[in-house]
C-alpha cells in the first residue's frame, strides 16, 4: 500500500516528467524497473532480450511522456512493456499469430489427478513446485500468460489489464482463466493434488 | 448436491473478485453445495499464490535510460579538466627538461672546475667556500683602500707626468671620496664570486629535484588524473546526449 505522501510525491514527479524533467522520469522508472523486467522476462525469457524490451519501452515512454494523461503511470509502463514483449515474441517466431482462444471457456480441459502426490502445503513450500510453475507458464500462450502475470504477479484489475492489452474485459477474464487452469493442470500432472485451502 | 451446472469458467474471475454481484451470488450458491467446485477453486487459488511467489529474475544492467540532461556544470568542468591536463603535461615536460638541464650544467661545471678559477667552481659546496673566503676580506679591503692608495702613490715611479698629475689630482681632490685603484679591484674581486655563487646555487636547485615549478612526477600525476577525469566527464556528456 502506498501512503498519501508517496502518492502526492509520485504525482509531482509525473507532472515534472511531463514537463520534460528527465530526472523525474528516471526516478519514476527506477521504482518500476525490476517489476517491469520480471514481467518482460516471463514473457520473452530472462536475458538480454527482456532487458532490451524494458529499455526500449522506457525510452518510448519517455518520448511519449508529454502525452501521458492516464491515472496510473505504472499501468501505462506495463502496457508499453507488455506490448513490446509480445511484439518481440511474434517477431522471434516469424509467423503470423494464430487465434489460440477456443470459443467457449467451458471447453477448457481440466486435468484430473494421475497419482497420489504431496499435498499442496508441502509442494508450495518447495523450490521444486516453483520450478514446475515456471515451466508450466512457459507452455502457456503468451497473450494468456501476459494477462495472468499482470493479474497474479503485478496485481492489476481486469479492467486495467483490458486497457493495457487493448482487449475487452471478457477476453481478459477468459485469458486469465485459461492460463491459470493450464498451470494448475501441469501441477496436477506432476502429482500435485492441490486442496480446497 | 447442487442442481445448477458447474460454473467452472467463472471460478478464476470469482477468485479475483471480478464478477458482477449477481453472478457472484450464483457462484456462492453453487459452491455451498459442490465440493468438486470448491476443490477446483482452491487449486486455482493455490496456483495463483504459487505464481505470485515466483522468485524475481534480476536484470544484469541498468534498464532505465539516461534521459536527464547533464548538469549545467558538467560541460565547463570537462573543458577545465581538459585544459588542466594539457597544462600539467606541459609543466611535466618543462620541469623534467629543467631538471635534466640543471643536472647537465652542474655536471659540466664540475668537470671544468679544476681548470677554472676558484670563483667559477660550481655546486653548492664549491660555491659556498669562496663566498666565505671573500666576505671577511671585504671590510678590510674597504678601509685599506684609501690608505693603500696613498701609500702606493710614491712607489709608482714609471708613471708618466700626465698620469702622475692625474694621480696627484686624484689624491688631492678626493683621498676621502675617490676610490683608490685597488678598491675597485677588491670590490669586483669580491662581488664576482658572490654572483657566481648565487648563480651556482640557483643552477643547483633543479639538480636537487626541488625546482620552483615542482617535481616533474607531481605534474605527470596531475596530468593523468585530470586527463582521466576529462574522459569520464566526456563520456557522461555524450551518454546524456544520446
Question: What's a concise summary of this model?
Answer:
The complex is a heterodimer of chains A (197) and B (242). With 197 residues, chain A is mostly helical. Chain A contains nine helices and no strands.
Give an account of the 3D structure.
- Chain A is mostly helical and 197 residues long.
- Chain A has nine helices and no strands.
- The model of chain A has no long low-confidence stretch (mean pLDDT 85).
- With 242 residues, chain B is an all-alpha fold.
- Chain B contains eight helices and no strands.
- Chain B has helices at 11-15, 21-33, 35-52, 74-112, 124-152, 161-174, 182-207, 216-241.
- The two termini of chain B are 67 Å apart.
- The model of chain B is unreliable at 115-167, 169-193 and 203-207 (pLDDT under 50).
- Classes of the chains: A mainly alpha (197), B mainly alpha (242).
- The interface between A and B is large, with 56 and 40 residues.
Index terms:
heterodimer; A: 197 residues; mainly alpha; B: 242 residues; 8 helices; 70% helix
Please give the structural blueprint:
The complex is a heterodimer of chains A (197) and B (242).
Chain A: H1 4-18, H2 22-44, H3 48-63, H4 73-93, H5 120-124, H6 127-138, H7 142-152, H8 158-165, H9 169-189
Helix pairs in contact in A: 1-2, 2-3, 2-4, 3-4, 4-7, 4-8, 6-9, 7-9, 8-9
Chain B: H1 11-15, H2 21-33, H3 35-52, H4 74-112, H5 124-152, H6 161-174, H7 182-207, H8 216-241
Helix pairs in contact in B: 2-3, 4-7, 4-8, 5-7
Distance between the termini of chain A: 26 Å
Provide the gyration radius of chain A in Å: 19 Å
Which class best fits the helix and strand makeup of chain B? mainly alpha
Question: Which percent range fits the helix content of chain B?
Answer: over 70%
User: Number of helical segments of chain A?
Assistant: 9
